Every structure is written in C-alpha cells, then in structure tokens.
Amino acid sequence: MVGEAKKIILKEINRLYPVTVDKIEQITNEMFYCSGKENSYFARITNYKTYEEQLDEVSWTHHLYKNGIGVAPIVHSLNDHLVERVVVPQEKLIVLFKSAPGDHLPRSKWKAPIFKEIGKQIGKMHRITMEYQQQNTSHFLYDWYENEEYNFLKYIPEEGKLVKGL
Q: pTM of the prediction?
C-alpha cells in the first residue's frame, strides 16, 4: 500500500477510535501494525467480507475476550462500534485490535504440560462458543471447513493432482 493510503488509515484510526497512533506499518495486504506512545494495535482493513459478516466474527471474538479467552481485545470506536467503514480510496471495513501480550513459544519449550494447557484452553473456548451460539443469532459464523477461504482444493488446478493427493 502506498504512503498516501497509509496516511489516510492513520488519520482515520485517530479520528474513529479513542487511541493515539503515531506510526503504521503494513504487515499483510489487510493487516497493519499501529503504534503510539502508550499502546500498540493491529488494524484489519479489508472488504473481503461484508459488514455483517465481520460484525458477527468480531462480536464472537469480543465475547471470547470478555469470558477470559486469550484473544486480542477489540477496540470499540468512538461510535461504540466494533467495525467501522473507511474510504482508502475505496470503502473498506476496519477492525482495531489492541496488541495481545505475549510472544511466540519457541519450539524448544513445546512440552507435554504446554500442550495439555492448550487443550484446556481450546475446551474452554469451545464451551464459551457454544454458550454464545445459544444466546446469539449468528448468520455468518461457520465451522472452519464451511468457509470458502479454507476450500483449498478448489483452487488447485487440475494438473495439480499430486498436490491434491489424487
């Protein structure tokens, strides 16, 4: 993304959210690392899903956070929205996440007690998700295998039978 678009994103984040961001770095086509004097954030700026789809997704993530699951907290906008619309230069949707504490666990520390704790956390996340689904009508939260973005075999050309395992 060119410098002008990054300037617009920086301006929009500071306008829409109760944060002060001084610097922005592009990580992927859709993710930006944003930092200020006090905190750091990640901004997802995309239009690959509709507003409603993204709102469903981040409402669930926000619920997980409120119930003690170690996910990055979502920053509500000054309008008290989890998802905002921005124009950079075409309309996109923005979700601002506060950086989660921690770091990647080095492979040398991959031991049985760590995996046991990960399993417990996944179980807790599953229980909280089941409660969420009972309390909320979600039209766009699917199991991972129902999401088009994970339908990898569809995008492998016919001549890639070896890759497909056929």
A: 0.81
